[in-house]
Write a structure and sequence with these properties.
Blueprint: E1 2-10, E2 20-29, E3 34-41
Antiparallel strand pairs: 1-2, 2-3
Length: about 45
C-alpha cells in the first residue's frame, strides 16, 4: 500500500513567509490500482 501526497501552495519560493497551503490531496494505491482518494481545499484564516 502506498500513499501519494500532493500539496498545492500559493506564493513563490523566495517569498516563503507569505506562502500558504491551498489544497491537499492523498491517493492510496495498492500497487495495482487506486483504492482511495482524499482531497481538500484550504482557506486559511477562515474557521
Amino acid at each position: 500500500m502506498f500513499a501519494i501526497i500532493d500539496i498545492e501552495t500559493c506564493g513563490g519560493k523566495f517569498d516563503y513567509e507569505k506562502s500558504r497551503i491551498t489544497e491537499i490531496c492523498v491517493v492510496l494505491h495498492d500497487g495495482l490500482q487506486v483504492t482511495e482518494v482524499f482531497t481538500s481545499l484550504i482557506i486559511q484564516g477562515v474557521i
